[in-house]
Automatic annotation (TrEMBL), chain A:
Residues 25-136, 547-641 form the Aldehyde oxidase/xanthine dehydrogenase second molybdopterin binding domain. Residues 275-416 form the Aldehyde oxidase/xanthine dehydrogenase first molybdopterin binding domain. Coiled coil: none annotated. This is Molybdopterin-dependent oxidoreductase. It holds the Pfam family MoCoBD_2. GO terms for molecular function: oxidoreductase activity. It comes from the Bacteria.
TrEMBL record, chain B:
Keywords: 2Fe-2S, Iron, Iron-sulfur, Metal-binding. This is (2Fe-2S)-binding protein. The keyword Metal-binding applies. It comes from Histidinibacterium aquaticum. Pfam families: Fer2, Fer2_2. Coiled coil: none annotated. GO terms for molecular function: 2 iron, 2 sulfur cluster binding; metal ion binding; oxidoreductase activity. Residues 3-79 form the 2Fe-2S ferredoxin-type domain. The keyword Iron-sulfur applies.
Amino acid sequence: MAAKLPPGLQSAPLISDWLTPIGGGRLRVCTGRAELGQGALTALKQMAAEELDVPPDSLEITGPDTGASPDEGFTAGSLSISQGGAAIRSATSALRALVLGEAARRLNAGLSLLAVKQGRIIDGETATDLTLAGLAGEIDLGVPVSDHAGPKPAGARHLNALDRIDLRDRMVGAPFVHDMAPEGLLFGRVFHPPTLDSRLADDTDLDTLASRPGVVTVVRDGGFLGIVAETEAQAAAAARWFEARLSWATPDGPSDPFHELEASDAEVEEIDSAGMLPEAEATADFTVRRPFLSHGAMGPSTALAQWTEEGLTVWSHTQGVYPLRKAIAEVFGEPEERVRVIHANGAGCYGHNGADDAALEAALLARACPGRPVRLSWNRASEFRAAPVGAAMMTRVRIWMDETGRLDGMHVNVTSPPHATRPSTNGAPCLRSGHLLDKPFPFPVPGDLPAARGGGAARNGVPLYGTGAHLTERKLVTGLPWRTSSLRALGAYLNVYGIETALEAAIIERGLDPFEVRLANLEDKRSREVLERLRAMSSDIIGEETEERNWGIAFARYKNTAAWAAVLVEAELGDELRATRVRIACDMGEVVNPDGALNQLEGGAIQSLSWTLKEALTLDGPAIGTAGWGDYPILRFSEIPEVRVEMIDRPEEPPLGCAEAVQGPVAAALGNAVQRMIGVPVLSLPLTRESVIAAVSA
Amino acid sequence: MDGETTCTINGEQRRFSAEEGTSLLLVLREQLGLRSARLGCGEESCGACTVLVDGEPVFSCTLPAEDIEGKTVTTAESLAGPEGDHPLLTAFLEHQAGQCGYCLPGILMRARAYLDSDAPVSREGIAAALDPSLCRCGAHQRMLNAVLDAAEQMGRA
């Protein structure tokens, strides 16, 4: 019996909450985890098929829907496999146990001889007339999972890794919320004020906007402004016409986030400490910083909403249908039962982007057109300017290392705006246009994610190395005009960059080997194994250094509780800085779907290289200035290095997730490659030509 | 004024009328039901809307639909035709070359134009041909490998 229930089973305790016979020998598996392009539904379907011993094709898997699925909170934090998968394994194992019990009764056979094979009940080696799906349809599944759950031990699973169940449709089909076109569809556009304090100019001509061809209605409520039109072309044309005439009055505000972070008198809180830091001068002591980053989804934030007599239905690529439902219901003053939020595919989001905001806005527009579905898509400028952004932050690291490479102390001091302002957190809806309404639902003062969830700003700020003494502190700065929220890895990206860059600086100062020093300060066996594996798989790179080509390494265990990753990046410094080769060794415990995990690790590495080499949002005072991809270059095909990944599979260990394991180590390994070439660390990200030159001249 | 435009799309003759200046992307998606080409940025910066016009990749998000009068348009739907899957589609599935997939139809169309051209096939050549298209998930390496495989299948390598 499961001693500790996965979170999803607390809100959805019954087998019938997770599994439904749908006839024809098939079962439906309901998960509350969303497919975000990361392959979650494929891996979860595979886990269900393995646990039930049924052919994967006999299963249908459906995603989050407040009208049908378990409440599993947000699909975030690389927890879909470790928590979502554990729930699926519990529920499916409970169904198997229940069905086998029923089969034993009907066959008058010994339970211990019965099993399921390819969906059929077998008695010893003999097939019976009974099937798992058939029996499941004839018994009461409204019983607690926890009464029957007993997932198979690792060795008893027949691994049958599935290819992505949805990839083909994503190439030649129309699987996105952007593609939904129900009968009677109307098309929305919204006009986002540049900041939450901007005001529409008094002489704005909304009457003429309302009379543009095809415009059904103009919706204005406080600072929220949008239109609904009969066709997408008419919505686009009316929006273009209006945007050329639209002006906002934006009060002055700060324009330098790093100045604000430094100047803030917010409390510096201790996160973790041990022993007393040395009083001697540190071997390395500096502050690294990263700018605001955009999630930069390829598809604009989009939602479809429809009001009927029964209430409101919203289709959204949100990461959390239940928290979003609560937030939307609160804004409209409706009971939650009258709001249904259904997950629909969007482009990859990499964290909290505009998806949830667009969902409320579509509902605000649709309320003005009762009965008709309204589809709203943001434009690219809003995607950069109105969506939450990844926090600009700074981390000071001091390291004490003796002549032999032993660490005597580490001090990590993180200064950051919040990383977690998702819907229905911090006691408010936390939706952009909700804040702007005539009767507003203002953004609250956010807190940080608790350490139990890996922390937010200070994520990975506590060193994993045996450091003698350490002190990790965090200053959380709220009240800045820029709206920040979760972007993959949260604070771990910069904190790992800071720790590993300072460590490398100390290693260079002492003239020691980067692998040996890290190994000497790590006792944990799995930490040491990823580093050893990385060294072995990089033998073709190590020793091949030139003046303009070198490599660096970095190591971290994500959240200090999830996957271990050691990374080597080889870089070339010519006219531009280029990453040429990447090697990754990763231990994520059990690897459920090896190719899916590889894809996540490769993608995480390439995205992190893009952040680290190129990305920074520009500011226009208190507003985001970046308006398009032209202002926000990301890594392109001709800039992609060779990425090679090896995973240390541990089928007997719990699966730990991997989507955010490498972002910090990849950035730090690249930075360390540069540091080994130019002799000094680069403190300001991204690692553009300018920041490298600044580091050399400093 | 609405004008009537006749063209060939994925081998079939199609006729539509749209207000002058309406983008080809909107006509494909909202009028003709061909939704594989996707709106990403609407300003020729990301490539999600890429289709082929007379064999050349174009950003359909800004191309006035009336400009394709008498021309041939190819969208990603054509890769899964009645005569079976195109080698590019097969190779992308084989390599599991994608994550969220929003960018994929545009990238597939660029890859197709490259493989249909006379350019000698190389990894660098493929990367250069795909460069106008962005992928945010970081599946580039798989896509490059998939196009190389498809080239071999098509006798282009």
